[in-house]
Amino acid sequence: MADARSTxxxxxxxxxxxxxxxxxxxxxxxxxGAPGADLGAFIFTARRGYLGKSYREVWKKxxxxxxxxxxxxxxxxxxxxxxxxxxxxxxxLDMKARAREMGFRVIEAYL
Length: 111
Description:
alpha/beta, Rossmann fold, two-stranded parallel ribbon, 5 helices, disordered N terminus
């Protein structure tokens, strides 16, 4: 999932209700470990009992200044079936562009 870290509080609920109709029943959920929609995806995964992976360690390693490096690492390592991108800023735009360039399906979700 990709978004801006300024996602309003309560985004976990929005993410939880939005993901189902967008992608059907997920089998494995990946999040980037950042605040915002990533945290919402993590909560969604835990509450629903889905298998998943959080790239929190990548977030901690690279922090704010290395968004493109972090995004590339996550996409290369996880090879997702689909990227669900919530409204965001430059990091989200970078993630969507990289995902499309690598041939991954990108769904733009709106809360």
